[in-house]
Amino acid sequence: MNADARLVRWLGAAFQAQFILSVTTDPLSSSIQAGKISAVMVSIAHNAVPIRVDIVLCLATCVAIIVMTSLLYVILRGCSRPVALVALVLWLFEVMLSAVGVPGLYALLMLSADFVKAGAPPTSYYETLAVFLHGLGQHVGDMSLLFFALGAFLWYGLFFQSRLVPRALSVWALLAMLPVLAGTLAQVWDSSLNVPFALYIPYLPFELVIGLWLLVRGPSPAFSTP
Prior knowledge:
Largest sheet: none
Structural class: mainly alpha
Helix content: over 70%
Number of strands: 0
Strand content: under 5%
Low-confidence stretches: none
Distance between the termini: 20 Å
Order of helices and strands: HHHHHHH
Radius of gyration: 20 Å
Number of helices: 7
């Protein structure tokens, strides 16, 4: 196995790790952080362990994305170094924004514990600060998804150009990212919009499939970079 093939299989493993961490993290905290802010704080205070686990998983996801992005750049920069560099920067911005949400969630956990200890007063600075921290986490999450979607179009375009994987998989990724980008732009424009989850469904299994493909099959025989 040559060096390129080993890197591609490491890339497949990184896709798998990022997928598993992402699908584990989102359901873990989303139900806890639903509802009115006072109820959210009480729920967070009573579910401190899942929230702490969520924080650790978020940080692990950031590491997995950094590894995955670095491998993508090394493998695909031969196709177009400028495009690969822009895609690299976009996904690193995604990681930075995701990391910003981690201290906010930790601060919300501490604030929620104090709120419950104070007897959950109906009107207090606790709720005002919690609204800010909760909103910050949601907004940076939407912004990080926007940077992800923009970078994904570039990476999967390079997939198609280099034939790293069969072009049918690259076309699937590019088409599936269109509704993801549309939904993300709408959410960033107005966070109160109820964007249908169905927009994200076509893309959801892709990272699992591409990770398994790269891990098991390695690069396509037609893979080439100038």
